[in-house]
Structures are given as structure tokens and as C-alpha cells.
Amino acid sequence: MRTLFHLPMDPLSRTVRIILREKKLDFNLVYERIWDERDDFFSLNPAGEIPLFIDQNGAIIASFYAIIEYLEETYPENTFSDKNPLMKAEIRRLIDWFNGKFSREVTQKLVFEKIYKRHVLREGPDSKNLREGQYNIHAHMDYICYLIDRRRWLAGEELTIADFTAAAHLSCLDFLGCVPWEKYEEAKDWYMRIKSRPSFRPLLSDQVPGHTAAEHYANLDF
Fold first, then answer.
1. Within 13 Å of residue 211, how many CA atoms lie on the same side as its CB?
2. For position 124, what pLDDT does the model report?
3. DSSP 208
4. What is the Cα 135 distance to its own chain's centre?
5. Alpha-carbon span 81 to 92, nearest angstrom
6. pLDDT at 123
7. What is the pLDDT of residue 34?
8. All domains in the chain, ordered by first residue
């Protein structure tokens, strides 16, 4: 059986989970507390990072970008990339935007502070980081609206990994009630289209000890 080592509120893991389900691939989830630094996990991935994917043939694929490339090339029946070089470049640019800039400016300042800082460092959140994250999200929501106003999906007319990546980050923030959807209708409509997909629904049942999801989190119409 395929296995994905993950954390529930890790956007990279969530993106891989969505892609696996879009490709209709069965897999087991293993909740890996990377801060425990298990020897068995380090033997699989010396970097000690998630996500980590093990295919049914025993192949071990570490790192987010390696996993999604492997899945796209190994299971091409449902593909969410593009052969056109310009479109491929745009998809990769947007993936990097959300896993890089958006993550640094928003996700890490809110999700890490509110969830993982408590579980890993046994500390309360830094109020400065919380304020910055909540302030920074507005520019990114504006950018999503800008893209959706000009395209059907973030990278173009087709649904791609860029959409799943962005939605994975926003889903973690939405769990905490940190997304000001009421100010960004275009972004909300785009997110609802992804949120209603069968591949996305298992994420809506994720639970985090000590935290309660926002009241609207699991609603497809919110």
C-alpha cells in the first residue's frame, strides 16, 4: 500500500493528499511528528522532513517537489501540469509563490504560531507575528482575485497543481478562521470550487488536538 507521512496542518502534505486522491490512488496516512526526530523516519528521509511518500513498489520519494513530479510522471492518467513550457513555468512560479512567499508572510506567521509552536516549543504565539500574518494575507488575497478575474484558474484555463497548492495553504488558515473571505468574493468562489471536489473533502475532517476548526470550515457553501 502507498504511504504518505504527513502532518494534518502542513500545506505541502495537504497538496500531495489532494493530488493522490485526484489521481484516484489508494494510500495510507501516517501522522509523523517530525519534532520527535524518530530514527526510523530519518532512515527513510535523512532530512527529517515531510511530506514523504512511499509507493506500492517500495520507492521512497522525499521532498514536495520530487513527490509531485514523480506522481505526475508515474500516474499520468489525471495530470495537473502542462506540457507547454510557458504554462509549465507559470504553474511552477505560482507553486513557488505559495510555498515560498505566501508561506513566509502568512502561513508560518499564523499556522505555526497558533498550532505548531504550542505543540513543538510549548510556547504561546508571538502577537507580533500574528498581527503581521493577518495584515499580510490581504495583499495575497488581492493577488488571487487579480488572477481569477483574468483566468478561470490561477495559472490559466485549466485546473493545476498551482490551485491545489494555494488552496492547501488557505485551508490551513481557514481551519483557524484567519481568512477574510467576506472581502474577497472572487477568491472565495475559486476556493469553493476546489473545496467541493471529492479530493478535498477528507481535509475538512482533519482534527488537531487542542484546536477546534472554525464553524464554517467544513461547509461547502459558506
1. 23
2. 85
3. B
4. 20
5. 9
6. 80
7. 94
8. 2-74 (3.40.30.10), 85-205 (1.20.1050.10)
Contacts of 144 (CB under 8 A, 6+ apart): 154, 166, 184, 186, 187, 190
Q: Which three cell numbers stand for residue 144?
A: 488571487
**Cell numbers for 184:** 474577497
Q: Which residue has the cell 505548531?
A: 116
Which element (helix H / strand E) includes 43?
Answer: helix 39-44
Q: 140 with 106: CB under 8 angstroms?
A: yes
Query: What pLDDT sits at residue 210?
Result: 84
Q: What is the pLDDT of residues 17-73, one digit of tens each?
A: 999 999 999 999 999 999 999 999 999 999 999 999 999 999 999 999 999 999 999
200, 194 contact by CB (below 8 A): yes
The angle, 0 to 180 degrees and rounded to 10, between the axes of the packed helices 185-195 and 161-175 is 100
Cell of 10: 502542513
List the Cα angle 128/131/136 in 5-degree steps: 120
Q: Is this model's pTM higher than 0.85 or not?
A: yes
Please name the residue that has the C-alpha cell 476556493: 191
Ranges of the chain whose pLDDT falls below 50: none
